[in-house]
Amino acid sequence: MSCAKNNETCCDTKSEATEDHIREAVRQHYARVVTSAKEGSGDCCGAGSCFTPNTTDKYAQKLGYDQKDLDNLPERANLGLGCGNPIKAAKLVAGETVLDLGSGAGFDAFIACRAVGPTGLVIGVDMTDEMITKANANALKSGYKNVDFRLGQIEDLPVDNGSVDVIISNCVINLVPNKRKAFQESYRVLKSGGRLAISDVVTNVELPESVRKDLALYAGCLAGATVVSDLEEFLKSAGFIDIKITPKDESREFIKDWAPGMRLEEFVISAHIEARKP
């Protein structure tokens, strides 16, 4: 089965969910999100197949963002793709180097830019060309000089060893097929004493196979939710310490809108995830 419009991979829910299939599904879906003529549209195959991003300030405030941060964002930097606010947990300091995993159109990266100031640097990595193009256009138009958007995959970061003070990410690790490798790469690029502060979706139970193999649900930030115990093991085996995973029960209210009628909010929940490199 494929989409009638463009034969898009993310809609081919019967395809084998290999790592390559997942990456291509995610890449195609988010390319459509950022290039859609309809602002904030995340349409894939129709209602219930792919979630529709919510780009309103009200939704961002529910995730924990302050209005003053939202007021200063470039146009359409907020694509409504987050599930929390990693910036608050990161406690950024002026002069730090920050890495944003899955930086999209630059939403969290631009907020981080203001936090670290002109002596700091924010590196945004995204695997979607269209997102990098949009983020760079936003940075140029708004005069951000302390940000560097790079095309690349989270499992193979285009970032030097031990060069980053803080890693942030917002509802992106769930989209990565090889999450163990993603955390190994995160550990590699962090400085000694560096910290990880991300928001993502997690689950306490293994999701049904029918969900895990649905590429539309994977691209929609649901099928790739990590079991909490597995997430802890990935972080520990990578070398992280001081691991803290804090589920946000209130997130079920907006997650239920991502796949209406499927009741996946009973299994999937947003969480703050923090850890430190010794």
Would you write up a description of this structure?
Residues 94-239 form the Methyltransferase domain. It is a single chain. The protein has a single domain (9-276), classed as Vaccinia Virus protein VP39 (Rossmann fold, 3-Layer(aba) Sandwich). The protein starts with 18 loop residues before the first helix and ends with a strand. It has helices at residues 19-35, 57-62, 67-71, 86-90, 107-116, 129-142, 179-189, 209-212, 215-219, 228-238, 252-255; strands spanning 97-101, 121-126, 147-151, 164-170, 190-203, 226-227, 241-248, 268-276. The protein is globular and about 45 Å long. The chain has 278 residues and is an alpha/beta fold.
Structure in a nutshell:
The protein has 278 residues and is of the alpha/beta class. It has helices at residues 19-35, 57-62, 67-71, 86-90, 107-116, 129-142, 179-189, 209-212, 215-219, 228-238, 252-255, and strands spanning 97-101, 121-126, 147-151, 164-170, 190-203, 226-227, 241-248, 268-276. Helix 1 packs parallel to helix 6 and helix 7 runs parallel beside helix 10.
